[in-house]
Sequence to fold (712 residues):
Amino acid sequence: MKKALLLFIVFTTLVTAQKKEITIEEIWNGTFRTERMNSLNSMNGDFYTLLNTNQLFQNTTIDKYSYSSLEKIETIVDSKDLNEIASFDSYLFNNNETKLILGVDSEPIYRHSSIGLFYVFDIASKSLKLIDSAKIQEPTFSPDSKKVAYVKNNNLFIKNLETNVVIPITNDGKNNFIINGICDWVYEEEFSFVKAFEWSNDSKNIAFLKFDETEVPTFSMDIVGTDLYPKAGEKNAIVTLLIFNTEKSSTSTIKLGNYEYIPRIKWTNKSNLLSVITLNRHQNNLNLYLVNSTDLSSKIILNEADKAYVDVHNNLTFLADNSFIWTSEKDGFNHIYHYTENGKLLNQITKGNWEVTNFYGINEKTKSIYYQSVEDGSINRTVYSIKLNGKDKKRLTNSSGDNDASFSKNLGYFINTFSDINTPPMYSLYNGNGVLLKEVLNNTRLSKKLEAYLISKKEFFILKTENGEFNAWMIKPSDFDASKKYPLFMTQYSGPGSQSVSNSWNSANDYWYQHLVQQGYIVVCVDGRGTGFKGAEFKKSTYLNLVKYETIDQIAAAKVLAKRPYIDANEIGIWGWSFGGHMSTNALLKGEGTFKMAIAVAPVTSWRFYDSVYTERFLRTPQENPTGYDENSPINYAHLLKGEFLLIHGSGDDNVHVQNSMRLQNALIEANKPFDSEIYPDRTHGIYEGKNTRIHLFNKMTIFIKENLGKK
Fold:
């Protein structure tokens, strides 16, 4: 028996020794990249389209497929048949799918916005028509398909596709002063809102926003140039709602009472009724208006108020009778509600101590609502259906892990994307009743490839500290020996409503953690207070004291973990990026020796330097809450530094300005505290531009860890 056991141990050791270690270069050269489906666009009926690229012939096609069979039905357009353009990178159908807008030579502006050349393609005649000779933004068909509205040089235009006449709706657009029909930087970044104009269903009116940035402070960077970037407590753009009537060629300004932000506009199913969401500056009082385009009147039909803040979402959906679906945290968890057109509550559709994480839509014929939630545990995502009356709830995806659905327009089918910590993304076709029809795509090739590498299991657990119970994961070396002591490296993000502990497939960073584990480290991640999907109270517990309790939780987590017999309490490190970089810096400085080292990448170091919308949502303004800003800024306690510190930033970061790191560096110098730093020239917040940038960055951090953590 002992001999058999010995042989097993020897065999296991030999197998382990034969496996390869993951290298930094492999992580960032695409060795472990997953195969993914192209983004599909649902069509009318049970069909969808894909934008496909033929690398050999350098042409692009828009191909039509059947949901029921997943077979290709036809090619709608092939760039090789077009004389004017060699390929295209985006497309948009009109309502009856007889025309397309094709995008060419797209150039990014910020995170979500871009400009490009755009053409209208008539499917029947195969004709191609340039919309404008200059690069434009967000071209959109009118519902009757006779016109296209678009933005050029901060002005809004309409092109009549029948006469080719272009009508300027505005003419006062000016860079860094007035924007019409497109959002400013802070709306795009913090409200995920770019196209700020919408056609009414009868094509007679266009509602649009005007941003007056005249008094918004500028922030200059050598490469990026000048940004209008309202920092916390500074003046925002003045935003106005207007409606242009195409029949009268007249523009009217809409009065909406007192507000600071207009983060959403959307026409209802009645052509004369526009829905508008406004927020006060504190973002704790949201009004949903209905605006009548006939008499220009407006009325509040729903109000959401919160002692902390109200989140803006995209789940407002109008039904045929103009009643509407809405999601809200008002009972303490994010759930789905049904209201009449006038804002009378008809029903709370979902209920329970769990969160709805996505609303997919409603099939009005069957009165079935489709949504995603964390009912299967806060680290999982599952797809469900439920009747409009809140009855007959049905689980549509059975596997526990991360499930997401891409539904057909009529909600008769959906393609489910599933992964968990052991399974790379799988794509499967289901019908609307949750019946699995066929597998579309899997990543078994990647799974097979990974069998040749030393991969340690990620273990999920609940970490109990004096401040609460938190979701966590741990990765141990493949040859883990409980009788030994290991250095601990902690990773986290910790931002409001975020989640780093999830039962989903690896990100690139996860492979880096595997690399570190192979070097003899234990890696742990803990989602402390303020993170998401465990209810509003847990998420909003950090209100007015951003990073204070989050820092306390990471320090407490390290101390609890240090009591485990296999953790070396004197060899604990932590790192993070952006919000997580702020956190790792605070944990090192305020940890009183808990952490031996820390790495901060692109960190906020004072919320006084960050944008108004994000920062004030959680802290209010610096004028109102100076303590909340300054007591948690590492600039103000740089003298507490004990341990080794690496500070990294991109000089072209338009999100978290390099000013943050420069000010912290200066504070550390004045406190005569040694530290290491790396500035990546002209790189933005993601520090990825240029050849080998990510490889250089992660090699830099890995070397720093090896030199300062667990080195005997």
About this structure: Residues 4-12 have pLDDT under 50 and may be disordered. The longest strand covers residues 567-577. The first helix runs from residue 2 to 18. The chain is about 15% helix and 35% strand.
